[in-house]
Queue: 3 jobs
Job 1
Amino acid sequence: MNILLINHYAGSPLHGMEYRPYYLAREWVKAGHRVRIVAASQSHLRTHAPQLATRAVLDEDIDGIAYRWLATPSYDGNGIRRAANIAAFLARLTAQSAQLAAERPDLVIASSTYPADIWPARRIARLAGARLVFEVHDLWPLSPIELGGMSPRHPFIRLMQAAENAACRHADTVISILPHAASHLIAHGMAPHKLHVVPNGVALAEWERAPAPLPAPVTTLLDSLRAEGRMVVGYAGSQGRANALDTLLDAATLLQHRQRDLHEEALPGTPAIALAATLSAAAQQGRARLPDRPGADLAEPTPDRPGARLPDHVTYRLGAALPEHVTDRLGATLPHHLTDKPGAGLPGHVPNSPGAGLPRPLPKRPGERLPAQSGHGPRFAFVLAGDGPEKQALQRRVDVEGLRDVHFIAPLPKACIPALLGGFDIAYLGWRRQPLYRYGISPNKLGDYLMAARPVIHAVDAANDPVADAGCGLSIAPEDPAALADAIDRLARLTPWQRHELGQRGASYARRHLDYRLLARRFLEACGGTGPPDR
């Protein structure tokens, strides 16, 4: 089969995002099909632009995929320059339509996020006698209306709406990464039988080989955080408004303040929560164990308040746990029976949204106990890797507010992502509260989080929740810093084995449902392209 995939923003391992067209095309090539990807030379998503110099068109072979880059002007942001970039791509694609049709594609896929590429794609398909496929990434023009605040009467929005209507009416097949987009697409003219859902996926081969080493400064940072006993909460990806990283910084602030407040509340050597447990346990057992500092024994009487002393027989041993009933304040050791009942959730204020509780029992290794914590609670570090339009504002906020536990990492090559995520203890994925997500979500980065076998905190209010489906972490309400801080603290207080079990659930889910080898076959089956390649 001969496949033409039109995607303005298509990338590759050489150029950076977006990767979905490359991964699908690579699997089709491996299956014996011929694939050409047509993309614009300039995209805000890519790390490296193809080098066209003064040429209008550049053909390039990448892993057996025939790429054709069409020259377009550079741009920043979402203003008039981006509109000029889109217009230039569509004009060059239209000019190329007869030449592309002469290659006799069997499938022509219009997949450029914005739907206006449906017009040149339809012309190519008609000239070639090919089937026409419309692939939906985001709902345009609904996305710029609801997320960008554009007026439905804006000329650009009217144009995009006409394009979406044409795509819904004329495409032979509609592929959506959004699992609940049917009602919207049907309202704009799509026959229900045309729709098939193929989500974003993950390339398992990239996780089955040894990861590329991290740059030395990143390795040094992660090693130093480990040496300090920090629990690393990480995010890797674009740093824009939609990613809700300001909520993550709010949660970091709350956790930093909690640490400070507990430190001020507790007198030297005796955390207040441990002291409360001691007084209760001493009355019942004649003895209590106080977490203090590594290697320290409280040989001397320990002060409670000015002038007060604990009994001389109250001593300390490293690793001793607080009584199981002491769970009502930050810093208390959680009960050992946590989540031993099916459906039991973590205690506290994690909202009761889908997946908010750990949905199935988390096993513990024989004899393994929840980690003993000091009264000051776990110590956290927050690592944000990547780039984006909000990064500088986030960095300024960290500096102004003195968030000493937040660290930024420059964008890394994709081959380094497995090693980076392997350095996280907890992965964060957040969203804004937006009505648009009623049609569902399919985040790119989640596949990598799952394959890294990291427990995930998912701050979302959407029609679907892959983290809840996988049972690999906690789902909480979006834009709620207190809920996020509580969720971080509660995952931190699981045993390492319990966090490992959560991570393994995610990896297993990704292998079963998000493997691009599976998704590429599903895509062609949905398009009627199940037969052997004939050209």
Job 2
Amino acid sequence: MAERYVPTVVSLAIQRRRVGWLLRACRRHGPEGWRNIEPFAAALPCTGWRSNVSVSTVSRWETGATLPTFPAIRRYETLLARPPFSLVSVIDTILRYHAKRLTPLPAVRRPAPEAALATRQLAAVLDKVCSDDAVSGTDWQTLSTVMISSAVPLLAPRRLWEEIVDRLLAEVMVSDGVAWMQRFETINILLSHPDSQEAAIGTISSIIADRGTQSLVGTACLLDGSGHPDAARSVLRLLHDPGDDRVFKGALMACVRKIRYRHFTEAQLGTIAWYSTEVAADSTVNEETRSLAASILRTVATPPDAERTIVSPAMASLLTSRVLDGTLSQLSHDVDGYRDLELARIIHDMLFDPVFDSRLYAAFLLQASPYRDGVAAALTSEVARADLRAGSAWVTTLFEALRVVGTARQRPTIEQYVVATGISQEVNDNAAYALGHIGGHTSYEVWQRTIGHHLRLWQTTQAADHASTLDRLVYALGMAREWSLIRRLAQTPNLPAAVSTAAGWWLTQPQRIRASVTPQTIP
């Protein structure tokens, strides 16, 4: 039986340890020839490396004592037959979120390009961005690498920055996996770079004002990436007048990092505390958002009633151990008696951290790890044994986690929950959203049946929860690039207004955006 896990505060040091954990897990559960550290260290150097790599250097990387270099992580991907940038992108994402201070520089530094090369690269990428050409994730990372180097002075009018950010955000909102992480890293650099941040904040605010946008939660949350006073003021405006629950939740999520980085004045913190108090005490607000509000309230004040958590600590420990046991039971082999103590902590954070972003980035770690299949199977077992008649925060986090770590094997189960009866409508809603990201592919026939089911329910009841599920299904259809089905749905009479708007948004996405971000084939 696995040990019971007691949660700890997640610091940057812990995240660095998790970078090492990811590299070590991929190696020890990877190709058999690299499970021993000595031959792996000997094979790491490649063309352009100035020296050999010692076993102690690899050990320091894999225990989190030191951060590996960018070329080293890319070499891990090559030797372990991992998809290009699959480890680099996850590491960039988690280290940026947990960084001690906001900076355009990535934690894993890139080799600085030579000035003449940087000038050519910048010109080539800007030509693509400002045209109808496709822009790849590597192109965006080239732009950000040149931006943070001193090789080329960046003097550009605001309208050019706005054009760059507008296109980048359009691609962020319709991408997934590594493609999303590469673009997400670039938008964070633009938000924190002194030359581009004001244009980035203004563009994000304009997009949020357009209620037809599909990814309003994530777009509002992006404001946590800038320390400019305009970003703090924008977050306060969205809390005061969000327009809908998605924008309010995104603004509340942005407060987590912005409070940590001291982006707010004392008066602004007082306003945030007031909103958090109201939300934490409002029983009509979903449990997950109330837990987030209570977590923020504990940061800015210490009221006695702010201890709301997703589940009790004892229950979280029990459930974490159960998922851990289920994960380990799926492993095809043991590795010399090696016991992975970090795995339980990451599983716990994926399921029970009150902050959505922290849960998401823990899930990214597990998705990139060799434990993915086992975690996905264990989570599916937990869904099967959970009480799905009430839309509890625990059930919501299970579906959130499966949305990231779930594979093609779990997709048919998620498809069934979208249309299942006798369970909470919130479960249908979460399952529909999961279809936008979970591995595998849904057949045309299943899409038709699923949409038809919820259309009939909406047309019979006109209930807001069925409209919400239809909206989530439009998002999932868009992420799957099922244009004919979206077109057919858009032409359906008597659609909820939000669903009609969402379908129209997807259908009006320019071809250059569609060409830049193609759906990933996720197993």
Job 3
Amino acid sequence: MKGKDSLTTTMEAGSKNKKTVYTLLIIIMLLATLLRFWTADFGLPHLFYIDETKIVKRAKLIAGNIIHKRWNIDPQFYQYPTFLTNLLAAEYVVYAIGYGIVTTKTGRHRNMQEAIDILFRPSNPAYVYDPYPPIFYLLARLNNAVAGIATVLLCFFLSKLAFDNDDRIALLSAFFLSVMFLHTKHSKYPMADSIMAFWTAAAMIYLVKMLLRGDKKDYILSGLFIGLGTSTKYLTIFLTASYMLNALLRWRQTRNDKAQGNKAWVYAMLGLGMIPIGFLIGTPTFLTRFRQYTKSVIGERKGMGSAVEGGKYGNTQAGFFDYFYATTPSWFEPYTINSLWGAMGIPLLIVTSLAFIYFIYKGINKDTKNKAVYWDFLIFISLIYWFLAGKGKNRIVRYFVIVAPFLTILTGKFLTDMADRIPCAWVKAKKGILLGGVAILLAFPTAIRSVRYNYLMSHTNNRVIAGRWIESNLPRGSKIWMPILYPPCVSSAMFDIHFYRGQQKTADMVAPYYYLKKQGFDYIILSSYDYGPSYSKEALRDFPSGTLAMLQFYKEAEEDAEWVKVFESNLKDIPGPTIKIIKIRK
């Protein structure tokens, strides 16, 4: 009877603990959802992130082809693989059909064809950077938001699977990822990074299962997800190293049993074959446009895509560890400090770095259980870092979104192991509460930044503010020269607008000031995306020809032109670039 009471008490305690864990998980998921959906519609109907067009424009093209029964899925853009583009195209088709049915029945449009034609034409062609109805951009952003939220959940289950079902590690890792600025910010933009991270985390779950049980579906699904991730963004291919390691180790576990060893070998080849299959599922035009894809990818890596005359494509880092401590805002990231210090927060980054060293120690310790799991994370993170930080690569911190889940798992494991080593009985009794408190302190800077960024983006963008003033105060028909990147939102029906055009330009992005004056321009509009001091400092080193031409342009403009109005942005409640309006003296 006494034993039965003891068993009942144990079961009740376990049930209570499980309820607490999943209550905390629900809170974490709600937090992740809030931070990723909040301001998902920022700036719309105007376009405020230039790279959005790289995905949305091609997806709309494919969707339009399918809607009009042309069945052409060629994106005509080969810098990225096309999983996200094709996914969006399918969503656009479904939305267009639903929109046509609803608007036809309600009498808004006469028939389906009219509804679809209106949907797929520019919503307001008089405005620059407003090429399609905002629903196309909103759907694209929501895809990444959903993928980001799902990745937080995958992080929880991957942690439990990798480290003996330890709920503490799982909750810590999911919490860190849910609030991390690096992940929350880039789960908002319709780029490939957030969805790539989702596929990577999904693949790692089955890579760990491959080690622990070695079922056929573990090989197949891990290979398939690596392929799908690679069809989203090429970086995922580095996870193949973990696949090869785990397949080898699983074969070694079974080699004493010839039948099991042969089975493991067959499964390994089957899973490996799923990688190209997964890639082709997401990027089928790789076969039909093989030369264009390979030329584009190889060309980008070799620097053939240089944007400015005399430049060295992407060579913007000061050193191999510049990703950690660089504090100069990059022209690629106008809203954030372009380093892991800013993207993760200093406390969390420091502890994550210690955790990485701790994993190396655990990986070489003979008594470590499931040692390969440690090396899965270490090898993948190291390969990604080496690839990105090598000479001549872009220093764009959002590329690290792919390893963010693994960094948080490292940190969660490190903190729980350190807590378990503390001998104090009081600490052991309050271990869960103390771990939670430490986690909140470590995550506080990056969580606050995520909140501040969302608050900032909930305000009207400075490009809209400047555009309204220009339309109200400058003479109609004025001939205006403005940057192609992040200009004010101005009606091209009201003004004669030109974007960095002119035959005598000295570089791709610069037209000489006196040339513009000779051509009869009335106004020049500048964006801090192009003239900021950080741009000049970094670009002068890496793009000397174009930057010197720009500096000469600014000097001549200051000497000759009249500076009419400046619209200052800030990181509190006026997002966007600072806009300057210059009147050319006649």
